[in-house]
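Batch manifest line 416
LIGAND: beta-D-glucopyranose
JOB: complex structure
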Amino acid sequence: MDEIRFPAGFLWGASTSAYQIEGGNTHADWWAWERDRRVAEPSARAADSWNRWRDDLDLAASLGLSVYRISVEWSRVEPEPGRFDEAAVGRYAEILAGIRERGMQSMVVLWHFTNPGWLVESRQPWHEDCSPEAFEHYVRRIVPALAPYVDWWATLNEANTYVDHGWMRGDWPPGRSGDWAGAMRAYEYLARGHRRAYAAIRELAGPDARVGLTHVMPWAHAAAGASAALTAPHRAFFHWEAAGFFLGKVRDELDWLGVQYYYDTPMDLRSQVDGDGDVPRTDLDWRIYPEGLYGVVREAWKRYRVPILVTENGLADAADAQRGRFIIDHLAWLARAIDEGADVRGYLHWSLIDNFEWAYGFTPRFGLAEVDYETFSRTPRQSAAIYARIARENGIAAGLGEDLRYANGAGPLGPR
Ligand code: BGC
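JOB STATUS: finished
ARTIFACT:
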């Protein structure tokens, strides 16, 4: 592969979320869900980042990253309705300041799947105005303390994943399955929450504040042997239902969009064809299809016309056997989308460190660094060095990782 360059000032980063790394978030709805044994194992101390956040920041800085993403755990800063824990708010301000002190930009997500237990005790979350109202109240309360240290604000992470698991599959709280009406209703109230938070942040942090949200984007394409033309309506509906429906509700309140991409969805005339072709797979058996990142970024740019950051992309790979190849191939496709005109400002890998992967527990290993859950030490994996080199050089050197292969023997899957 020839050398690939990224635009000057392109941001290189890594993402995390509060509940998945902090540990001890006892006031969240997820904590109760875990107590009811609805998960492989409980989050417990997670990666203990509530205490070891300096280690995380030092690690990100040591990789030469220029942006680091955290989230704020709502139930930690507002454990009871209207009662705010000042020390917790102060800790988040300290973490965000620490990111800046280490020469990185900071990105903060204000809601990443978890709700305070009190919000959901007597009602369905995000099904009535009380949820967006309470969300705005929380946002207004913390923004003044955090604003001096925040470069990128995101209100909600992956409303679509939350609704899919919470109302359609039933494996996340509130545990409903096949509930289409409930899902549509949750989307509506999440969108209201976003709009309220967007206005509040702009008001309190000033007109220069950059406020967006992060969303996982599916990439449906015709399966081998299926016609692109004939599958087009089915694919368009899938894209709309999985991402466009919600984004359409919030598109007028987006200064930037966080695009997140993990795997593709091949389709024939009838359905999704997960077994299409001999693609490499992650430890979670997710398909690895780097071209999909090009597809979703182009589509997002064409549709929404706001600056984009890829805010999550990564894989479960405990042996770190595929991560280097995965990163290079996805970035090569991303560079092509940029060359063709998409306004992409940065790429943040998911994740900086291993973490609590929701219903799966701790088995999937998404980290650039491995976490030892006995000692809580963080050890960068081999692939972290590859990523650090790309970040340092703001590009992919000719021939970098040429010898790296996927577990199924496949070589590079970048653009030819
Ligand atoms: C979520 C993360 C999650 C990752 C990998 C994204 O959907 O935002 O919380 O860990 O995917 O599954």
